[in-house]
Amino acid sequence: MVNRKLMGDAGANPLGQYRSMRDFERTPEPAGEEGAPETGARFVVQEHHATALHWDFRLERDGVLVSWAVPKGVPPDPRVNHLAVHTEDHPLSYIDFEGRIPEGEYGGGKVVLWDSGTYECHKWDEREVMVTLAGKRARGRYVLFRTGGKNWMMHRMDPPEDPGREPMPSDLRPLDLPVGDLPSDEEAWSFEVALGSQRVLVASEGGRLRVLAGVGEVTTHFPELRLLGRAIGAVAVVLEGEVVALGPDGRPDDASLARRAEARSDAALRRLAEHSPVTFIAADVVWLEGHGTAVLPHRERRTLLDQLDLAGPAWQTVPAHPGDGSALLKATRTQGLAGVVARRSDGGYEPESLRFVAADPAAGGPSGVTAAGS
Prior knowledge:
The protein is an alpha+beta fold. Helix content is 16%, strand content 37%.
């Protein structure tokens, strides 16, 4: 059977391990049938929102689905290999499974179908599996090679399907917003409320999230934002926006936010996240799926942002107000907020096309803005 070829002798019952790990009176997962007939060389990739988000990659072989858990998903680029952990064989009936595995059960969490199709096998032994996938999202030649124990690596052998795709930059920092006045041609700009909190970039790839400020990476300061990476899932994206903590009056609480940087332990950060949670307010997209978007006009970047549909317990998308700067600035003054951010509709993500306009010019700019330029 399959496990003899990959991980050692599986015995006469290839689904024994699978069944021993599940209570089928509680989980909606299929128990499967012994000797189920194969229908062909099929594959499936299931996005699995378990304790740690991952993608389950399964190949139909010898009456079962041979399975790997891939924490960052199917690699789209041959320059980057992804860890693939070999797991127990699954029944063929699992190939179209979607649903929620109850908490407390093995793999508890939501399972959704990410892709499926057929494959051509070029090599299959205990050290290496080489296939060509024909799915809607996963296409091309891949090899899984064993590195030790249950750990394998998944490598794309073909060039990227998107030939212009580039790896996510490693030197990301948020752009300082110049401080200035409202533009005279308001109709050519889009405006959004600025709460005056910490301006950051949020980078998510394979469900793993990093938060980057001007001083460097500050991911550990905001443990509640990790769930945003799981919500974004397989999309590789860099977002610009604000991290804000709100006080009991619903206004930004800068002192609470400052305590994040002063915390000296993970336990202290978890307590702060519980008692004074932050929200990431997304405002722009500066990199998406292998391509920098800073050169695109803001109206196109805003469309990309809206398509991500970011709304969750610790994140939201800031509303955009095209051509409505004066009214919005007046509203921020009335509400005691920091001001507005102006983004030129046909401009790129660059200082010349961005500016922070303070509701109270005497107050200066918040973190992530600079007095240089207007």
